[in-house]
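Mods, move this if it's the wrong board.
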Amino acid sequence: MDSLFDETAKRARAEVAPLASRMRPRNLDEFVGQPRAVGQGTWLRRAITEDTISSIILYGPAGTGKTSLARIIADATRAHFDEVSAVTSGVADLRRAIDAAADRLTLSGQRTILFIDEIHRFSKSQQDALLHAVEDRVVILVGATTENPYFEVNAPLVSRSRVIELEPLDDDDVRSIVVRALADERGLAGRFGLETDAERAIVTGAGGDARVALTTLELAAGLVAPGAKGATITAEMVRDASPSRILPYDRQGDVHYDVISAFIKSMRGSDPDAAVYWLARMIHGGEDPKFIARRMMIFASEDVGNADPQALLVAHAAFKAAESIGWPECRINLSQTAVYLALAPKSNASYLAIDAALAEVREGAARQVPSHLRDRHRPGSESYGPYRYPHDSASGIVAQRCLPDGLERGRFFTPGSRGWEAERAEAVRRAWEQAESDAGKPG
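Not the wrong board. Structure tokens:
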């Protein structure tokens, strides 16, 4: 039982704690959002209320409730709750916690729940130190991470845990958290009003992160003049407290890959507005402009191809601009290129052709170069079949086999139906038909 001194110290810390810490939910009824993870009837909710929790890894963006859920588990369980930070702890700290858990289990039969925040920051050896303790249930692991555990946490540890994915809160969830903080005695205790536009600015600016919303609210409340009549937080105060909206973007993490994926798919879908929006998200997040330009160069060949042969030149120019100009001016070059690629006719025929040809080379029969195509600078080449020079034909095409025996034209390349590629493919098809007709035999 806590002593009076402990309670006094706890109250003193609470008084100076940030609003986001003071407003942590104390139980599942106060927890906002995440219906898929912890809503009525879910496994995690039952495990918490029935105190039957097994090892879990809570995965999701910042401010979605991972640490809050761990605190709720701590308050609800009869097990001993221990906490280790992956930022400040090493292998020795882990082993001490595991040894204490083993003693506790042996002497009193009490289970130990070990909460590890930012578990992805542990090295492989640190994560390995946990493995046997989790496997033997010496500890029940509750890990929290903003990074995809399937990539950042050791596979054996993931396989022995249940991964619970938390999603960014929606605007209604963030709004309810803000409204509660305004009224709750632990929060601002009804001392402030909040303009509608100010509330909207806080909710929109949070980007699904409850911590950001509460921090902005607290900073804006600090701008209200002491004793001011009405004590209302205005939209201008919110802007002053949060001059730059912070959207989640990790140049090495899942959001990075999700945003670049959305950017590519928007250009492929011929949606310039969406392409520019996702480009802006990457610019705002501090992405390397050369990375963006490289991806557009790949896109120019993979998705536009010869429907518009100029696309690759435009994308290459954007890369050179990113390389030589840099931020912030090269944003204009990147935007021009993204819009060009989104508007360009699309063809993935070249991309599909090379992959189909590679599959044939790897898995098909060993095929010889037709003799009439072989190099002539060798003894015996006079016996090779005659080579017909295409430039001697008015159309530039002669009825002559260029593929090895066993492969026919059209096996790998199927032209798209748009742009320059479609026009040229049709012209070449007609020229081939004419050449074969003139020769009286197929090529």
